[in-house]
């Protein structure tokens, strides 16, 4: 009898524990997990991240294309990396979503300090948020050698590698208010158009980079272009 009990216990204990998952909408992008970079693919959005049971810190950023108010061309808006820290339970499916009115009404203001919530079965779970000051280098900045001292990937890795979210001097910790949990939203998938290098004209290349650039880069380019006239 004892042998059968021992065998039963060994079978139960040997059953692998299923991983937890965290899902994000198209308007967000994973960057690092617990001090390790997350490989990103320009052509494929990673919406789900597997997590082992226990505490985790995930760096991500708001990264979306929004309709330009002046032209018909969509423009890119990206935030600095920010970190969410929470305890994951094995087998649970967590959802991260934007919250607050700024997400829909003013994407530029939202990108300055993205507000999010994490839910499990529709109920908010306890978590902490921390924000970095790292900025993505612009196209003109790279051309003229004006690049940030720490890029966004380095900042994301460093932020998730610390023992606490507030341990990095450039990070300010915050927790979502009750009012922020009232509104959640998601954005539709944007289509990526590819062109053959053999048929790409200079005008098409310029249009492509204009579409990829953020508002700051566009202002820098226009200022530079005017000076060339």
From TrEMBL:
This is UPF0319 protein. It comes from Paraferrimonas haliotis. Transmembrane segments: none annotated. The keyword Signal applies. InterPro entries: UPF0319. Belongs to the UPF0319 family. It comes from the Bacteria. Residues 1-19 form the signal peptide. Keywords: Signal.
């Amino acid at each position: 009898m004892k042998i059968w009990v021992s065998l039963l216990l060994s079978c139960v204990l040997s059953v692998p524990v299923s991983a937890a998952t965290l899902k994000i909408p198209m308007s967000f992008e994973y960057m690092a997990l617990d001090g390790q970079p997350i490989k990103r693919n320009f052509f494929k959005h990673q919406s789900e991240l597997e997590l082992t049971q226990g505490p985790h810190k995930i760096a991500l950023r708001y990264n979306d294309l929004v309709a330009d108010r002046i032209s018909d061309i969509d423009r890119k808006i990206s935030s600095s990396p920010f970190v969410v820290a929470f305890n994951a339970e094995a087998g649970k499916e967590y959802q991260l979503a934007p919250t607050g009115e700024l997400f829909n009404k003013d994407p530029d203001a939202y990108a300055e300090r993205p507000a999010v919530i994490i839910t499990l079965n529709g109920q908010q779970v306890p978590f902490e948020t921390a924000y970095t000051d790292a900025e993505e280098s612009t196209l003109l900045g790279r051309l003229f050698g004006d690049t940030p001292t720490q890029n966004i990937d380095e900042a994301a890795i460093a932020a998730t590698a610390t023992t606490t979210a507030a341990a990095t001097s450039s990070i300010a910790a915050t927790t979502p208010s009750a009012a922020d949990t009232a509104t959640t939203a998601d954005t539709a998938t944007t289509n990526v158009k590819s062109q053959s290098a053999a048929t790409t004209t200079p005008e098409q290349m310029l249009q492509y980079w204009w579409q990829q650039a953020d508002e700051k880069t566009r202002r820098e380019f226009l200022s530079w272009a005017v000076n060339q006239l």
